[in-house]
Structure prediction request, 218 residues.
Amino acid sequence: MKFFIDSADINAIKKFSKIGMVDGVTTNPSIIAKSGRDIREVITEICGIVEGPVSAEVTATQAKKMIEEGEYLSKIAKNVAVKVPLTWDGLETCKVLSDQGIMVNVTLCFSSQQALLAAKAGASFISPFIGRLDDIGEDGMDLIKDIREIYDNYSNLSTEILAASIRTTDHVRRAAIIGADVSTLPPSVLEELAMHPLTDKGLKAFLDDWEKSGQTIM
Ligand code: G3P
Prediction:
């Protein structure tokens, strides 16, 4: 499974990239706004750190303008994936940009039918939002399961499933079991993935015993 970082936090992106944990980055208008930085500037900087796809989202809602924004964003760097919402205008934008060889990430996906449309429009990625479905009392992971099954039924569909709106480490575990191609993780969830109380307890015991032995390795 590939890990994308769902953040424009440069320090976090650098930190986890160094350990080989970052296969790409996703942003959205809220994330860019939170960074307090200009979208062109921050996407350029991220693309200089990460070789994989870096999603930058259009904010227009009509296809003509969305296409213009998408073409503009795609020129920032060759690894920019243009993010569009799952609307008919977004799907039209997806088709036009994909036909030009531009990676498109179709976002705000809440049903497997929507995911099917995105794949047919040539999306490189579909972003089903797990956490937001959990928020309304559904099990977001059911959507990942359905999309996986549907995409696997048709060998001509090459869209990657990018599990988004991930809030917990258990979301990552379940998405990986189902076979989502990518999980996009807030840095806090990525941080937590390595943690286990038995690891801490075991390490403490090892180090206590080692100290008692009086030995040093070097
Ligand atoms: O990748 C989409 C993600 O940023 C949405 O997450 O937690 O705002 O639902 P969340």
Remarks:
- Residues 2-213 form a domain with the TIM Barrel fold (CATH 3.20.20.70).
- The longest helix spans residues 197-213.
- Residues 136 and 182 are 23 Å apart (CA to CA).
